[in-house]
Amino acid sequence: MPHIDLGNDEFGIRSLLTYRPETARPMAMLAEVLMRGPSTLTAGERELIAAYVSGRNECGYCTASHAASAAVRLPGGVTLVDQVLAGPETAPITAKLAALLRIAGAVQQSGKAVREEEVAAARDAGATDLEIHDTVLIAAAFCMFNRYVDGLATTAQSDPAVYLAAAQRNIDQGYVAPVT
């Protein structure tokens, strides 16, 4: 049960966005740019970064939501996402994505935990400065989103099909779609 009366039947961050539309729009716009805007990282890779950080933060709603969004966008689907969430060091992903996930994991701990060695390793694996930038910003933003969702004790769904349907809705409508 949420800590405050949100006055709606939505779950996770959607319940919070419905509750406070004044803050919803700028947050959704940030997510839209980070997750769907122009980038050399695919939308699936960016969703995977969000799921990975959310998993490390133990935010069940955001992990399930972004894992589903990554799964529908990546060739390896749910299996690949599960492998990355279990440990990117053994998952069948590119060296570049593995290096970016190490940076995202460091950001999840603390911005100051990102070391020059991790950045150099990402560059050596082919990551551009923009990809490193966006990885850090996605990780930082999802730390905020995770704390927002869990700090107000929003509810989550247990049925994975709900998250897959939401992932398809996100593909069709994006992050700035109206919340019902």
Describe the structure.
- The protein has 180 residues and is mostly helical.
- It has one domain (41-172): Up-down Bundle (AhpD-like).
- It is built from nine helices and no strands.
- Helix 1 crosses helix 2 and helix 6 (95-109) runs antiparallel to helix 7 (116-124).
- The longest helix is centred in the last third of the chain and has 23 residues, at 129-151.
- The radius of gyration is 16 Å and the shape is globular.
- The mean pLDDT is 95.
Order of helices and strands: HHHHHHHHH
- Count of individual helical segments: 9
- Beta-strand percent range: under 5%
What percent of residues adopt helix (DSSP H or I)? Answer: 55-70%
Largest sheet geometry:
none
Q: What class, by secondary structure content?
A: mainly alpha
CATH superfamily: AhpD-like
